[in-house]
Amino acid sequence: MQVLGIESSCDETGVALVSADMRPGAGVPALLAHALHTQATMHADYGGVVPELASRDHIRRVLPLAQQVLADARQPLSAIDVVAYTRGPGLAGALLAGAGVACALAAALGKPALGVHHLEGHLLSPFLGVDAPQFPFVALLVSGGHTQLMRVDGVGRYALLGETIDDAAGEAFDKSAKLLGLGYPGGPELARLADFGDAQAYALPRPLLHSGDLDFSFAGLKTAALTQVRKLGNVCELARANLAASIQAAIVEVLVKKSLAALRQTGLDRLVVAGGVSVNARLRAELDAACAARGVRVHYPDLHLCTDNGAMIALTAALRLQAGVDAARCDYAFDVRPRWALQAAEQGGG
Ligand code: KG4
Ligand code: ZN
């Protein structure tokens, strides 16, 4: 079975084709080809994503990307068995652009369509790597819009352990980067600057570190960073690098300690880290060291599949169909879910 996946929840248009063996006990679906267009430069002038521009650009990009994917995979349109798309969460207009094209394409081909959860895509994306995890595991989902710890017992079997009560980790990177006068998206820029700084230079808060639960809070960190930026006034390059390193260290420490607490609480010895922030080198280094010391295996998506992409959407649809927790539909009636809890995408949910 070949699944075409379309991602359009925010500022990346991603399309991919995966091939899945549907026989019982078959292995992980294989990625045949994928293509991505990032809108980052388009939104950079505005310092953040402009939803209307994002929707219009998705409409422009998605079909050429689909053509490119089919050409790269050397497959005709008729080889597509299911068209999958991101149903939510995300920007409503952006989601509608992808869902509309996906359902129109499926209808034209006479093939079924399936809407999937964006965070489930991130969570399952390490299955496309060489070091695919085994269930059960704890998942740390760290993206621009979400920060969650989940217990994952299988495809479609997700229990929320903790989440952010305000800003997401990626948002903390992005907002702090903006305060430091860095470009959009801020996460990678702040991480680059942090390489030249001293992470001990500023004592920044680690909110909820000792709260005893698995929730996160990053809004206070941004405020503390703002206070430091104001104090510094016309900051020199080294002071900015030191502040960037200190901010990154604060975010990373909280993510690492809460992940370890989730592993202790569940008694599991496998951790999956996914979402845009899982690219972060310091986060990976600290998690690797902490987990190695405790005999925990850590799995990440391949670097190019950490941020939004179509491969994770095609993969998620294929895995859900393989596991029998979902069925693709031919009614082509689509609704998107800009807000959608991952637990609600469990077996029989959606
Ligand atoms: O998963 P993603 O592509 O989109 C959402 O679903 O939100 O994540 C994007 C987030 C942004 O906040 C971006 O700044 C952050 O991931 N990010 C990073 C790095 N690369 C991307 N954060 C820290 N360090 C990085 N190297
Ligand atoms: Zn994402």
In summary, what is this structure?
The protein has helices at residues 40-44, 51-72, 92-109, 118-124, 169-179, 186-194, 219-232, 237-266, 281-293, 311-323, and strands at 2-7, 12-19, 30-38, 82-88, 113-117, 137-142, 147-154, 157-163, 270-274, 297-299.
Number of helices: 10
CATH class group of the largest domain: Alpha Beta
Q: Major sheet: order of its strands? A: 3-2-1-4-5
Overall geometric form: globular
* Ligand list: 5'-O-[(R)-(carboxyoxy)(hydroxy)phosphoryl]adenosine, zinc ion
Number of domains: 2
Distance between the termini: 22 Å
Structural Rg: 20 Å
Beta content comes to: 15-25%
Q: What would you call the quaternary organization? A: single chain
Task: Tell me what you see in this structure.
The chain is of the alpha/beta class and 350 residues long. It folds into two domains: 163 residues, 2-Layer Sandwich (Nucleotidyltransferase, domain 5), CATH 3.30.420.40; 168 residues, Nucleotidyltransferase, domain 5, CATH 3.30.420.40. The protein is 41% helix and 18% strand. The strands form two sheets. A five-stranded mixed β-sheet has the order 3-2-1-4-5, sandwiched between helices. It has a five-stranded mixed β-sheet with strand order 8-7-6-9-10, sandwiched between helices. Helix 6 packs across helix 8. The protein starts with a strand and ends in a 27-residue tail after the last helix. Bound molecules: 5'-O-[(R)-(carboxyoxy)(hydroxy)phosphoryl]adenosine (KG4) and zinc ion (ZN).
